[in-house]
């Protein structure tokens, strides 16, 4: 067996996407999104996508970079995936070793990584000196059988209407303002600064998986109040990219309304399976998803390792 680790090439996109789907089947991952992530990362992120090649076959990858927008310097990420049929052959170890060496060379003091709550993944992380941090709960909803609450537009509160992200194509800045505000309030272990509008356009608005027609926006008296982002892969899979409500509009059920509208749109568009992920401490969204009928699909853990004292 010949195992090598090298930089990603565009021709690897299908194999990398397949490996990611094998490890994390609920994510919306396509060859197009893999290439886009590699090509669109801001220079400050120092992003690098490594692949593990086993006897000429790409069996895994590691996406690595710096949290350049964090107020705390020296924070980095390294998310590694290995195809299920290639576990135990050394691909994961080779990728993580190369990732840590690269990040240490760029001054990283801590490396964060997501891993499944599965014995092989947890054991691998902890043997390499990673310690457990936050959890993420993945939910699954079968849209072909789900009893989605009806949308009675005549019963909406005065001044409330539903639109889609596509309606903001000429000027998405109101969505940007809502998104950065809600993102600031998301629980997490890495604090990030406010994303500049130009970078939000490049990284969020232009994301190839973003389905603007299925992304729903609740508007109150003309102002964006809540939204639910839809990512799709064109093969029946739907991922809730983010659901949030601006602070001034919270407590009115607008996030639930926007997400319900998005799910109805997704089903009408032919999506069959919906997935969502929430921080383990995000009680409000976990409750909303349970109300919709999402069932537990997986648990992910964020692990962190110190690279320097």
Detailed description of the structure:
This protein has helices at residues 13-23, 31-40, 91-104, 119-127, 173-184, 197-205, 254-268, 283-292; strands at residues 3-7, 48-54, 57-66, 75-82, 110-116, 131-142, 160-164, 216-220, 223-232, 237-245, 273-279, 295-306. It is an alpha+beta fold and 309 residues long. The protein has 2 domains: 3-135 and 301-306, Gcn5-related N-acetyltransferase (GNAT) (Aminopeptidase, 3-Layer(aba) Sandwich), CATH 3.40.630.30; 148-292, 3-Layer(aba) Sandwich (Aminopeptidase), CATH 3.40.630.30. A hairpin with a 2-residue loop joins strand 2 and strand 3. The longest helix is centred in the C-terminal third of the chain and has 15 residues, at 254-268. The radius of gyration is 20 Å and the shape is globular.
Provide the structure class: alpha+beta
Please list the strands of the largest sheet in the order they lie side by side.
1-2-3-4-5-12-6-11-10-9-8-7
Residue share in β-strands: 25-35%
- Residue windows where pLDDT falls under 50 for at least 5 positions: none
The overall average pLDDT, rounded, is: 94
Q: What's the gyration radius in Å?
A: 20 Å
What is the highest CATH level, the class of the largest domain? Alpha Beta
Helices, by number, come to 8
The total strand number stands at 12
CATH architecture of the largest domain: 3-Layer(aba) Sandwich
For the biggest sheet, the summary is: 12 strands, mixed
Topology as H/E string? EHHEEEHEHEEHHEEEHEHE
Cα separation of the termini: 36 Å
Instruction: Summarize the amount of helix as a percent range.
Output: 25-40%
CATH T-level topology of the largest domain? Aminopeptidase
Any idea what the CATH superfamily of the largest domain is called? Gcn5-related N-acetyltransferase (GNAT)
What form results from the Cα inertia axes?
A: globular
Number of domains: 2
